[in-house]
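Per reviewer request, we include the raw input and output of the structure prediction for the construct analysed in the revised manuscript.
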Amino acid sequence: MAFASFDRQSSGAPVSEINMVPLIDVMLVLLVIFIVTAPLLTHSVKLELPQATSQVNPPVPVKIDFAIDATGQRYWNGERVSREDAAVRFVAEGGQPVQPEIHLRADQAVAYRHVAQTLADASKAGLTKVGFVSQPEAK
């Protein structure tokens, strides 16, 4: 690659090679600019924060054992109550921040209307966590 030549015949011919030196110079200048400015682009403050661990203690719902015997008598956690008293207690429990779990145990010989009345009273009080407790069959 000859830039200066004393030959007059080939001096007027077009040059078919690209001069790479100016392109490499521009690339190196841009690289130096990026190396200098990259640390300035981060605006973080170095802090050593205290480390702590904690676990959320979810509120444990109250468990209410509600039983109906064969005669239709109702029991609230083993205490005998009437239907009206049970409805009042359902309303009181429905106003709690954590809804209680009601475990309903009904005798197999009880009339279904007693169970339906109890479910209706619990539903009116806004209680939705009602579970039926049964005994597995003996094999």
